[in-house]
Design a protein that fits this description.
This protein has helices spanning about 5-25, 55-65, 80-85, 110-115, 130-140, 150-155, 160-175, 180-185, 190-195, 210-220, 230-240, 265-270, 275-290, 300-305, and strands at about 45-50, 70-75, 100, 120-125, 220-225. It is of the alpha/beta class.
Length: about 300
């Protein structure tokens, strides 16, 4: 074996050290944890497609109780799958590498197609109306700073979520493409990600064909599917499939005060996310089928799980 260090070795070493230190500082739980789960030779890496504002930050907290920081890959540019492939794909052959997460707006399927034998997928979906409110509230509370689109919206003093959609529509009509990725997230954002068409389709331009591709991908590419409304069942599915020691009580990044949703808001958000509504219902069914497949003792096991 050669003693010469390659460029990839330096990248791997630096990324591992960075992830370890960053994870330790972010979570504050590095010291005193038991030894984590080690991936078996015949098992696969879990690729978590993190759809924003579905509960992924809370899931990260759960996973950090089972997997050490250097065993998790969270790409610095989680929306870009090329970044994961270029800088992190070589970790797929390391036996202590267990879990990778990211938003992956730019077609996560390209990564899977190259690494089918090494990866399995998990994801969560959320009621689109609740997700719209949560995402918008998060943006204006955390990102309404100089130069951000959230700041531009706040400056126009919208009084309701319906007003926010009117702002989206006006900016789109004016061809204000500087912030189009922001608009896409609020217009069938889940269908965009899961179909693989992502940000290549115009605002209000999503199609039934995209929905069908998203459904097929959910059905064929994901081992575990959950919905935010039944978050603990999703955790239970992970526990049963991967043996992780999960605590159903952890919740992170939850808004302290939720904005009101009027009937008009509900109707306008639903119209803007008509495909996501159907996709969310489909995901609920798939998740329920996965739960039922655990067997006759699943119901009692789940009750014991949520009781702690």
């Amino acid at each position: 074996m050669s003693d010469i260090l390659t460029r990839r070795d330096f990248i791997a070493f630096g990324a591992g050290i960075g992830a370890t230190i960053g994870g330790a500082l972010a979570m504050g739980k590095w010291q005193g944890r038991d030894m984590p789960v080690i991936r078996a030779k015949d098992s696969k890496v879990q690729l978590f497609l993190h759809i924003p504002k579905t509960g992924g930050t809370s899931l990260r907290e759960h996973i950090m109780n089972n997997v050490k920081a250097h065993q998790i890959v969270m790409p610095e540019r989680p929306e870009n799958i090329w970044h994961l492939k270029k800088y992190y794909s070589h970790y797929l052959n390391a036996q202590d590498y267990i879990y990778v997460r990211g938003h992956f707006a730019n077609d996560w399927r390209r990564f899977l197609n190259d690494y089918t034998d090494q990866t399995t997928c998990i994801t969560m979906l959320r009621n689109p109306v609740s997700r719209f409110r949560s995402s918008y509230q998060y943006q204006i509370e955390n990102w309404a700073t100089q130069g951000s689109y959230a700041k531009d919206i706040v400056a126009q003093n919208p009084r309701s979520l319906s007003d926010v959609i009117d702002i989206f529509d006006r900016d789109n009509a004016r061809k204000n493409f500087k912030h189009r990725a922001f608009l896409y997230e609020y217009n069938d954002g889940m269908t965009r990600r899961l179909s693989g068409d992502g940000w290549n389709v115009p605002y209000r331009g999503t199609t039934p064909a995209m929905l069908e591709r998203a459904k097929e991908n959910l059905r064929t590419r994901f081992k575990i599917i959950g919905v935010t409304e039944e978050y603990n069942k999703f955790l239970y599915l992970l526990k049963q499939n991967y043996g992780w020691d999960l605590n159903p009580s952890i919740r992170k990044n939850v808004a302290k005060k939720k904005m009101a949703i009027t009937d008009q808001d509900h109707d306008k958000i639903s119209a803007l996310n008509r495909l996501d509504i159907e996709l969310h219902q489909y995901a609920q069914k798939l998740s329920s089928d996965m739960f039922a497949a655990l067997g006759v003792n699943a119901a009692q096991g789940y009750q014991d799980f949520i009781k702690g």
